[in-house]
UniProtKB/TrEMBL annotation:
<keyword id="KW-0378">Hydrolase</keyword>
<protein>
    <submittedName>
        <fullName>Esterase</fullName>
    </submittedName>
</protein>
<dbReference type="Pfam" id="PF03061">
    <property type="entry name" value="4HBT"/>
</dbReference>
<dbReference type="GO" id="GO:0005829">
    <property type="term" value="C:cytosol"/>
</dbReference>
<dbReference type="InterPro" id="IPR006683">
    <property type="entry name" value="Thioestr_dom"/>
</dbReference>
<comment type="similarity">
    <text>Belongs to the thioesterase PaaI family.</text>
</comment>
<feature type="domain" description="Thioesterase">
    <location>
        <begin position="51"/>
        <end position="129"/>
    </location>
</feature>
<dbReference type="InterPro" id="IPR003736">
    <property type="entry name" value="PAAI_dom"/>
</dbReference>
<dbReference type="GO" id="GO:0061522">
    <property type="term" value="F:1,4-dihydroxy-2-naphthoyl-CoA thioesterase activity"/>
</dbReference>
<dbReference type="InterPro" id="IPR029069">
    <property type="entry name" value="HotDog_dom_sf"/>
</dbReference>
Amino acid sequence: MSIWQTLPDPEDLGRALENTLAEHLDMRIEAWDDSSLTASMVVDRRTHQPMGLLHGGASVALAETVGSIASMLCVDRSRFYCVGQEINANHVRGVRSGRVTAVARPLHLGRSSHVWDIRLSDEEGRLTCVSRLTVAVVPLQRDAS
């Protein structure tokens, strides 16, 4: 059974990333299945820290992007929007070049919050970062009239 309220559409999601941090860091929605969403990001001068390794903050930006998009696809967007509330990350392997891939899987999909497990890996499939994202599911305000 699928978790999606709205099926992911790579073209729509690509347009949603235009003119954002995600576009600047060359983030791309790559794939999905019934219970996960996958995105990737470039590892180059845009995402390096001074030692030439992938910046931890860039990994966290990718994790929050893919998890937040996944949450938005799990709710009725005519009634709710989703915002990141808390994120943590453990960086377990350095990356110098190529792309990293992030796979977001839900740990909890509640009425007012979602919790995502997001695993980043390098092009060889080695784990580089483990992140947990909590997303607030917020009702859209309606006019009282």
